[in-house]
Amino acid sequence: MRKERLIVPILAAIAVIWMVAQLLSSVLFERSLRQALEDLEARGEWRVSRIESHQGWLTSRGRLILSPLLGRPWRLELTYRARHGVLSTDVEGTLLPRLDSVLQKAVGEVSAPSVPRWQGRYQTLSGHTELRLALAPFVIQQSGRELAVRGARVRLEGVFGDWRLRGLLEQLTLTDGLAQLTLGPAQLESRYTYIEDAYHFAQRDHLHIESLALRYPAYDIHVTPFDVHSHMELDESELRLKGELIVGDVRVPSEAPDTSLLSGRIEAELSRLNADAVRETIRRLRQEAAWGDASLPMAEGLLSRLEPHLRQVLSDSPRLDVTTIDIDSPLLGLQVNADGALFFDARRLDELSITALDKPDERARWLERIDGDFVWHDAPTMAALWLGLPLGTQELQFDVIRGVWRVNGRPMPQLLPP
User: Fold this and answer.
1) What is the pTM of this model?
2) What is the per-residue burial (b if ≥16 Cβ within 10 Å, else e) of 155-186?
């Protein structure tokens, strides 16, 4: 009899525990979503609007708008519906791209079999999130031009402070009259790590394009493969951007089907961009976006208001290091093995104007702030002839002094007509 009396309290306790777990799952999911959106905005690249939110005990739903912070040429409308469980939350929704009226008229209509749908799961205890999106083939047509995407898949997973993205594109084809560009398969891998409010962050990206073909009636160009590596890091003192471009093999089948036009790699790094000024510029951009209206988030005169912050980004005298230029062209019989660096003189920054860069005199003032040097090792005789140097010259020393180029101590000849 006593055992039977215990059944009701035990069942009641289990029910209470289940209800509390469900409520906790809902609360943690909502907190994680809010934190993720705040961190996304903290990067200073995106504007996130949460226009609908209904948090429930068993289910939650909402709608988000994601658009570029600078202007609003396009936006993504993302809906979600979350089913909360004790240990995890299953999420699904739709993703609808929209263009502004001007861009919509220029691009034309998009034909797709259905609205793209996405799915995901949030682990309550670990905070791990995984989102998956598969795009069906679609076509964009406008005035005889056509963009066709055969299919794509995107996977985003991670926890607070560490996110990984993997994207796969089967094939993209752009046709404009008799010209056609075909790209794919392509793969993007990205990892983004950060602390709260993105005060410090690092992002690594790798884009691999297996094949790229450009076809004209007169000739074709084929590139296989094509890789781009990038690394961006913001720490206490500076923002650094490092990139590497690797071109496997470029051929022109209509001219030389059996000989490579070129292959090689270029690696460079831009450093000494003032970190505090970068953060202040991002903060001001977010403030400007918050003041804007729905159709034009950035008011007129934005560049003038940002100019003091942008100049301050250059206050530590940025430098561009080109650590590797390694290009081989069997078709032209040319090899390039070079490296060098450029430096920006940051003294008296108030004498420079970013808003007047469209004027030749102002561009000349900026160029006068650039110094540096490059070395072309084992340069071919043909290059020395182009530059008016003695035939025995094997190393070319390019110097940049106040924006003026010199080669081996001589003024750089004008290679192209004005």
Assistant:
1) 0.82
2) ebbbebeebebebbbebbbbbeeeeeebbbeb
